[in-house]
Amino acid sequence: MELFTPDFGLVFWMFIAFIILFLILAKWGWPVILKSIDERADKIDKGVEYAKEAKAQLDSARADAQKYIEEAQTKQAEMLRDAAKMKSQIIESAKQEAADEAKKVMDAAKVSIEQSRKEAELQFRNEVSRFSLEIAEKMVRNQLKTDEAQQNLVDKMLDEIEKN
Amino acid sequence: MNTRHFSILLLLITAFLLPSYAKASGSGDEGLNVKEVMFHHLGDGYGWEVPFSHVYRIPLPVIVRAEDGSWHCFSSSRLSEIERVVDADGKEKTEAVPKIVSITKNGKEYQFVLAHHSKHSNKVVQIFPLTTESDKKAFLDAEAAVAASDAGQDAIVDGYVEFDGTYYKEYKPLDISITKNVFALLIASVVVTLLVLGLARYYAKHTDKTPRKGMGFVELLVDFLYSGTIKSALGDKTKKFAPYLLTCFFFIFVMNVLGLVVIFPGGANLTGNIAVTLVLAVIAFFMINIHGSKHYWKDIFWPDVPLWLKFPIPIMQFIEIFSMFTKPAALCVRLFANMMGGHMIVITLILLIFIFTAFGAVATGATVVVSILFTLFMLALDILVSFIQAYVFTLLTTIFISMSTEDPHAKHEENVEHLSIEKGTAATE
User: Do residues B139 and B167 lie in contact, with contact meaning Cβ atoms separated by under 8 Å?
Assistant: First the structure.
């Protein structure tokens, strides 16, 4: 039964050894180690949190960028549409203006043509009337060249007067 | 079949054949006292065995307080003398023969001897020769009384020690010798100190860097216990108890593992010694109870049970107080029994080889192989057990401390206070 009876010497030394060991380690050993472990754990936790935050930020930044890109794209499309519209408008108005101008020119031309036609007509009439008068004069002169003819005429006229 | 298999087979065959060769060439075996060998290995001793020698030992100091109160310190090598003796077969061999240590101090002679045939066997005792007639007569009376009883002729006579055929009156001195176990204890303490201070120094030098290799293992254990067990069980009281619990774990673990090392710096069956686990348990007892909360003590002396269970006959109080002591006692016995059991199984397996020599060479050969394989397995298992037992001891102590220091009322009161403050602010608003 020697195994089951604690030996005083061993109890004594064990007690002393444990107390001294505990005092030494509690003073110079454990505080340093535990502080380091705690600090490192904190740091790791913080690091993980930081990484998470950074990821979230990155994600949101990406979303923002996507949003901006989309916005820009819609704006661009709008602008293109506007430009096209404006282009057609300008062309349209230009066409209109050109047509108006052309019409004006045409009208003026028409007016002047009419005028010149009228003038020509007038001139032509005068000319024709002058020519016809000349012709008639010549014809009359021709017919009345002889005295006989002049007499006949006078006779005829007198006849007519007489008849009346 | 590849070379590896072949070499293993060859090794096994050699192992089977070797003992028969040894048996053929060696001399006849002496009687083997299994119990003595076992207890010798499990128990304590003055001086430390040197590997492969039963004679030479590393001397250690013996410190004893004699009957008259004087202290004496001498080397354990003086307790025996190495002599060449001739044994029964006429073969000469060296043997450690016990002898009497005589010390003369202040003109007085003190005699000590390592007791064998005595109540205090394997302990150093102070002896007094039976000089006067009355002494001799008293001894003869005592011897006659013992011989007449059931114990028989060779029984131990209480208060007397037999040495070299002569009886002496013995006195068991107060013994604080640096025995094998005490020395192993000091080695374990030094190892723990080096490990922990080494790790602390590493941390002081390198901030935010995890140690690698050996120190990494120590850190792994510290982190496993500290973050995994102590912190989660104790919460805000971690700072107060963590140093004790970690010291406790490392001390037990190192002692366990050193106990498994067969030669010099280890080999002492420390945690398988009830004295060591007893001290650990007593310290745990104090750690658990000194910081006990009001709630804990109230639960012991006035638990929440029907009145007739606690008054007028304090049944519950008795049970609770009993459980206060059984908790550390269980810690003590668990560690002791586990570690001693492991050592005992290993020793038994090895002893089987010597027991089976009686049945011839083949039986011995087979036993050698089987025993060695089983021993290896047991030792591997013991390494696991070393860790588990150290961990269980620490874990249970942690849980007991957390149970005794927990204060559910404190939280409640805090809440109430908080509520009343809130009410107050609400009223002022």
Answer: yes
